[in-house]
Structure formats: structure tokens, C-alpha cells
Design a protein that fits this description.
Layout lengths: L2 H11 L10 H7 L6 E5 L10 E5 L9 E2 L20 H18 L5 E5 L8 H4 L4 E10 L8 H9 L4 E5 L2 H14 L8 H13 L3 E7 L5 E9 L4 E8 L1 H6 L1 H11 L8 E2 L6 H9 L3 E11 L5
Parallel strand pairs: 3-4, 9-10
Antiparallel strand pairs: 1-2, 4-11, 5-10, 5-11, 6-7, 7-8, 8-9
């Protein structure tokens, strides 16, 4: 059995224990085919369970082999079913036991870069063999609790006459995003087909929805793409029109998500970038910052 077949088999035994971004069906689409990623499985076990690690093989400059994050896939790296529920000391021993097995299986590539989930803080075995340890932030909201700053509270009051509907049309979000990038004279970085395929694949599995904030006239002012698994709810992407920004459409959508999450009692991950203005916006919405470990090896070449 190939490592990738073993990876699929491990997840198939209890798919709910593995994050959505580690699922084979997600990676098949995000990487543009099952041949564009590999799945590693440890030979060693912890409490009878192996660790896994997906490897998106996305060439840079079309010829240089690289392992890096696919579009719309904020997290990768190793995972062990139940790791979010164990204490920090046990996580250290688990990583000390299983991560070297994964490291030994990593293929030689020109460049590797992976972002671990915020629940996973142990990466010492990668560092010990030459991988650089980096860090980035994500921001998470607690469900059922709203902690907006004064400006967002003001915008929320301003948005009371707006309405929120659900949609199964990802093109609505994509076109709104494309208009935003066009206004900035920047190319749209996300292919429309990719967003469609990922949205519908998750939607068919009951793990994806679009929420849209509309004007009284019915005009869409903002939209958010929500995904979820048993670990978290993810606000993966959002777009707001100029009118929507002035009317508080995005804070209105976030407040609705906090009050009415698709799965209760899970953290809401805003999947934010490291841009300072995005970080300030997320904190203004009441989100807490969470550090994510990253590993890197080789030299980055922009594609």
C-alpha cells in the first residue's frame, strides 16, 4: 500500500477526527488532482493511532518541486486524532515520538513551507533536523459571545435595517471579490472554478454555506464563506462592497455568525492574514490572537 493510500484509509476510519483541510477530497481539489499531493502516515503509533501529514506538491516556476499551501487552505502540517484534547505535556511526548517518523518520510524538494493549526504547538523534531521554525497569527472568536469595540458596535447599530440570507452560490462571493481586486487594479488571486469546486464539495458534505448581507432592496452588500468540522468553524473568505462597508454589513455578518454558528461551542477561526490592518480589524471584532507554528526549508522562489 502506498503512503497516500494508507493516509486515505486512516482518515476513512474516522473522518470526523481530522480537520477539513486535511481531508483527501479537499486536497484533491485544492491541489488540482490526487497526483499533486501525497499523504504521510507514521509507522509509530500513540495510543494505537498514527499521525498523518499531507504534502501538497505544487511546483514553483512550474519546474521546481515544492511543498507549500494550496489556495484557500490555511492549515496543513501534521495531525493526530484527538490532539486538541490532550494536555501540552502529552502533546510534547506525542510529537517527540511521532514527528521524527514523518520527517524521515519527507521527500527532497527545492522548498517546503507548512503552517500548523493553532491547536498544535510542538515542532521541535523538525527544528532538530534543520527546518526553520517560523510563526504567524490567526484570530479566533468565541461562539455565543460578542466583544465588539465601540466602532463596530456603532456599525452594528447602523446595520439593523439590513437582512441576512444564506446562499449556495459561490459565484456571488467570487464576483464581489473580483470587483474589489479590480478596484485596486490587482489580479484576482483565486480561480473561480477552484472556489466553486471546494464550496460545492464541502456543501454536499454539510460543511459549507454562504451568508449574504443584503440591503432592503435585495442588493448584496457583503458575503462570508463559512466552513466547519469538529475542530472549528472557519470564516474562510469574505467580500464587502463600498456601500456595505459604510453600512456595517461585515460586522453585521460576523455578529450573526457568533450568535448563530453552524456548529455550537466551537471557536470561530477568522483565517486572517498577517496584514496589520486585518489584524486590527479582527481584534476590533473581539477576536483573540493565536500563534501558529510554521516550518520552512529551502529557498522561496515566487511563482
Amino acid at each position: 500500500m502506498t503512503p497516500s493510500a494508507a493516509y486515505r484509509q486512516v482518515i476513512a476510519q474516522s473522518p470526523e477526527q481530522y480537520p477539513i483541510f486535511h481531508q483527501p477530497w479537499w486536497l484533491d481539489i485544492a491541489c488540482d488532482g490526487s497526483h499533486r499531493w501525497q499523504g504521510l502516515v507514521t509507522h509509530q503509533l500513540h495510543k494505537g493511532i498514527p499521525a498523518i501529514m499531507p504534502l501538497p506538491l505544487l511546483p514553483m516556476k512550474r519546474i521546481l518541486p515544492a511543498i507549500r499551501k494550496p489556495l484557500l487552505t490555511p492549515y496543513g502540517g501534521p495531525w493526530w486524532a484527538g490532539i486538541a484534547q490532550i494536555a501540552s505535556q502529552e502533546q510534547f511526548h506525542l510529537a517527540d515520538q511521532l514527528w521524527p517518523d514523518l520527517v524521515a518520510q519527507l521527500p527532497p524538494v527545492f522548498y517546503l513551507h507548512q503552517t500548523f493549526r493553532p491547536e498544535l504547538s510542538q515542532a521541535l523534531p523538525f527544528h532538530q533536523v534543520g527546518y526553520r521554525l517560523l510563526s504567524r497569527y490567526t484570530f479566533r472568536l468565541a461562539s455565543d459571545t460578542l466583544h465588539f469595540n465601540r466602532n463596530n458596535q456603532r456599525l452594528l447599530k447602523k446595520a439593523r435595517h439590513l437582512s441576512i440570507t444564506t446562499s449556495d452560490d459561490p459565484d456571488l462571493l467570487w464576483k464581489m471579490l473580483a470587483d474589489t481586486f479590480a478596484e485596486k487594479r490587482q489580479p484576482m488571486p483565486i480561480p473561480q472554478k477552484l472556489m466553486q469546486q471546494l464550496f460545492f464539495a464541502a456543501h454536499e458534505r454539510g460543511q459549507s454555506i454562504l451568508r449574504v448581507c443584503r440591503h432592503e432592496s435585495g442588493t448584496a452588500l457583503a458575503a462570508i464563506w463559512i466552513l466547519w468540522d469538529q475542530q472549528a468553524v472557519y470564516l474562510l473568505s469574505n467580500a464587502v462592497t463600498a456601500e456595505g462597508r459604510s453600512l456595517g454589513a461585515y460586522p453585521f455578518l460576523v455578529a450573526d455568525l457568533v450568535a448563530n454558528p453552524p456548529v455550537p461551542h466551537l471557536p470561530i477561526d477568522l483565517c486572517g492574514t498577517m496584514l496589520p490592518e486585518v489584524a486590527r480589524m479582527n481584534v476590533g471584532l473581539g477576536a483573540d490572537s493565536h500563534l501558529c507554528v510554521e516550518i520552512e526549508k529551502g529557498w522561496r522562489v515566487f511563482s
